[in-house]
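Example 3.2
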Amino acid sequence: MYIFRYDGKFMQYMDKAGRVVLLNIMFLFSCLPIVTFGMAVEGMYFAIFQWVIRKDDRVFHNYVEGIRRRWKVSLAGWLLCLAAAAFFLIEFQAIGEMLFPWNYVCGCVAALTAFCIAVTALYYFAVAAFTDVTIRNLVVISFAGGMKCLLYTLLLLVLWIAEIFLCSISVWLVPLWVTCGFALFAWARSFIFLRVFQKIELYRKEEE
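Structure, written as tokens:
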């Protein structure tokens, strides 16, 4: 039948769906050790950017290549995120035991600092997958880009919260997350990242 021809639209969609599933499964296996989560995220973004921008749909090759070329940067970024999360957990517990007004002042400072770090972390792995710069420049680009495009940053934050919420509400959704859920959310976020990269002149659409 025509619908099952390799060059037909149905088989093309099935081929794309299969690549998304493969990418999602590779991501899940890569981040089973918690310490490798940053590398898994960076590898997934690298594969998606290659697919979206350069039409290179070799997701397995690009995923492995993305991790190989930037594993030190992504590992360092993830360890810093874990250290910051642990620090602020202890910090907010200590603030809760302070007397007024010091608890209010310290709480505001800690919340502002946590927000800045969260904005940086939101972009860090996508920027690491997109360009070859040092960790210092990654932090600068991530924070500056996130603050300059605050509306896109808030949209990315909403997508992350929605992903975490949907991932935790029901065991019936587990097959979805195992097959394609994380990759689909990353795919959606990649277009937002590219818009931000255009705004901060890290990427020009004419390069496609």
